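TL;DR need structure tokens for one chain.
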Amino acid sequence: MTDPAPASRKRDPRIDVLRGLALLIIFVDHIPNNAPALITPHNLGFSDAAELFVLFAGYSAMAAYGGLFRRAGTIETLKRVARRCLRIYLFQAALLLATLLIVRAWMDATGLVPRFGVAPLLQMGLWSGLWRGLLLNALPNYLDILPLYIVLLAAFPLYYAGMRRSVWGVLGVSALIWLLANLDPAFNLPNAAADDGWYFNPFAWQFLFAIGMALSAAIRGGDGLLPRRAWLRAACWLMLAVSLLQAAPWSAWNLPDLSLVAMAPPDKGHVAPLRLLHILAVIYLLFGSPRVYALTSSPRLRWLELCGRHSLEVFALGCLAALIGRISYRTFGPTWPLQVGVNVAGLAAMIALAWFLDRRARLSAAP
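>> reply
TL;DR here they are.
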């Protein structure tokens, strides 16, 4: 596979549906002490929704801009990539400003102080912390995935140019960079809000982005499915079963501990090898299954598809809804009525926003 085919204009329903699902899961996971998080992927295996989100970012970038290099030319495509990076940055800036102001107002009203998140930025002073955050020099918890997305998308043209010559060559170089990031934790970008650099180390996470690009090229070059190999499917299911036994919060579920060995969770910030193997197993099973393709094409999952299609806006709203949830739990305690209200309201708002944006787009496109 030496030359990726031009991107198809038809959207892959699996990407939008699964990305929409990942966004809703990220919202649930971003609220500590949130009961529904006990059954989200990070408690069911080594990887979680963040890996899906970044891998799909690479897939979508290849689908959106890969063929555009040929149709519109290099300059026009680079302009569109730059505009997309700028748009993501503006969302990041707005989220950072809103988060700092909301948390500052909450502190003034309650006398409580945040334990993490934007706490390091507020300790620098509101405006100093905001400025360093806008420069991407200080990235607080829960607001660090969009900066990663900006860096990876900015690097897309370089990755694409390499994949025009050799997909496997680019994957090999990308894997080497990932390995170096895992071997040397100091191989990272600086972060004034944390001593050990960006939590989502871009030198490690770029490998998932590159894998997503390669997956897009492979899918478009075939029949829409990855080759099905019985032995490989069996190995993937075995990987998922073992990781479930190891990662499940047995005590929180009030069940006997069924983990096979005592081990710490694989490092997320550097996409540790077990996390990488787990997400690759998940992707192979999802993209090698005709049933998954048929299911994600169903109109019954259109609400998830729309969330994935308007991922940036839905993600931003989910970040603010999760912030309200964290503040509410900290102020009043994570009581069951409050948890139900926070989760139902947050998820409903994200889905409603996706429907609104889709309807607006259809009306503006109507003659």
